Amino acid sequence: EPEVTQTPSHQVTQMGQEVILRCVPISNHLYFYWYRQILGQKVEFLVSFYNNEISEKSEIFDDQFSVERPDGSNFTLKIRSTKLEDSAMYFCASSGVNEKLFFGSGTQLSVL
Amino acid sequence: KNEVEQSPQNLTAQEGEFITINCSYSVGISALHWLQQHPGGGIVSLFMLSSGKKKHGRLIATINIQEKHSSLHITASHPRDSAVYICAVRSMNYGGSQGNLIFGKGTKLSVKP
Q1: What is the dihedral of CA A1, B97, B21, A3, to 10 degrees?
Q2: Which DSSP symbol is given to A15?
Q3: How many Cβ atoms are within 10 Å of A69's Cβ, its own excluded?
């Protein structure tokens, strides 16, 4: 079965630094998403991306965050000036039209 | 206020038992997802449904739109079914992306041999 690939699996950074989380969605999918899960809490939607632009974003997804599809395969989440509370597991997902989601295995971000 | 409520929060079963996990939601929805989160953290989508019932192997998902309720059933449970099962809904109020989901807190299932 095709997979969504996320790198790195773990990222440790210092508070105030910028991080880029990378995802390779399934090749024929058109919709891409980022979610986060703070330890012990439920999964939260961050942003969806379609046709090279953000289609929806949550209140969490403020100016600190940005997404990009720099080429035909990668989908990235950039977090500027990281804060302690950004520590979480970040999941990328992709889907076709009206289809179930395929999730990556996540990037565990630790901000020290 | 949680828009998606799951019960039970934790569930321990013996191998072979029939398992039911419930999900109730308070918003109008266009779709409901059942997800499985493995102990290592990875998430797998089990079902996406908007009406009726779906079956895949030993898993069955049902939804009652009028009652705003869905159930996930596992027949002949096995220790490898041990995971967190998450219900997530897409509100009808959202206009575009199908991935803009409201998640439940999950049900932690442990199946003992």
Answers
A1: 20
A2: T
A3: 16
Mutate to test the interface with B, among A39, A43, A103 (most CBs of B within 10 A): A43
Give CA A31 to chain center in angstroms.
Answer: 13
Q: Per residue in B20-37, pLDDT tens?
A: 999 999 988 999 999 999
Contact criterion met (CB below 8 Å) for A60 and A36: yes
- A110 vs B: CB within 8 A: no
Q: C-alpha distances in angstroms, A21 versus A70, A87, B92?
A: 13, 13, 30
Give chain A positions within 8 Å (CB) of B105.
41-42
pLDDT at B1 over 70: no
Contact A42, A89 (CB under 8 A): no
